Predict the structure.
Amino acid sequence: MESHATRLTQAHIHLDRLTHNLRLIAGEAPGALLWPVVKANAYGHGAQIVARHLVESGHRTLCVADVAEAMELKDASIDASYIVLSATLPEHSEALVANGFEVVVCTRDMVEALARESKKAQREISLHVKVDTGMGRIGIRPDDVSAFLAHCREFPTLRVRGLMSHFPRADEADKTYSIEQLKRFNRIVEATKDQGIEVYHMANSAAIFDLPDSHFDAVRPGIAIYGLRPSTDIANPKVGELRPVLELKSRITFLKEVPQGHGLSYGHAAHTARASLIATVPAGYGDGVSRGLSNDIDMLIRGTRCSQIGNVTMDMSLVDVTALRGQVKIGDEATLIGRDGTEEITADELAAKLGTINYEIVTRIGQRVPRVAVGN
């Protein structure tokens, strides 16, 4: 998404930090291929900006959630191999084959649909067979792997390039379940290593840092490439060297002196405790600032934490800048996520206030917010 000068609320995407994070992750998984995940608009960071930088940095395989995400990047002339991670339907097979995407499969119907389309197109298609070793989401059962691979081999235009699984609890301090899950996958690897599988892959961001035995031939880092911790329970101290790629910035558009006891915003959910200077910032829940954060967050203005006050509205939020009276002015920058001077507001801080995870904070940033590449 391109920058729009008229949009005062922008997400700044620091490409130098993205590069730093990728190098850090690669150092934690030496010898493994690095397949970055750019699904959900690159976790809210702007898929085209991120994917283009990844490809220019030498990363030739990218993971997406669905066909539409892969097509959007291909149509933007971002030349990469795309692995479609989510389960797809037979109706998607024509587009998958026509575009040469690599497909994660876990049903025979999908295998057969891809076989028909690839035969018609006279084009080989690469598959990654998903095995459910404990996620409980998509994937075939471990004891079905042999028969499923045999079925795939019945079709000469299909090539099973990868065999994969996924961790549901690798970000927890207690790795007992993940270690058992890894043992299940290792048994599958041993049973299939003579069946032409090119790449075994399982590790997500948490496993890259905390489960080195899970790296196999390739790893699929997601949240970590964006400089965010998979959780606070990661034991590997190197996770502390990740640098947040995204900053969410806006600007003050209005300043108003109001008396003590003045009601603010919809529902008058807050009243001023004293005569106050209130700033209006054009960032609201239409931009991804949850209404559930009302009266519970700060913004950084002139390097100072200032309390947001009143209900967050669709397009605007109010901030108490009384402490900056005589210094603050219309047009000043307001930081919702990021650093200003010695102060910093993180996605983790906002997530804790909402009782959610940092993934949700960044992925919910609205589409109307321009993603602006900086620090290239």
Q: What stands out?
A: The chain has a mean pLDDT of 97. The domain at 246-374 is CATH 2.40.37.10 (Lyase, Ornithine Decarboxylase; Chain A, domain 1).
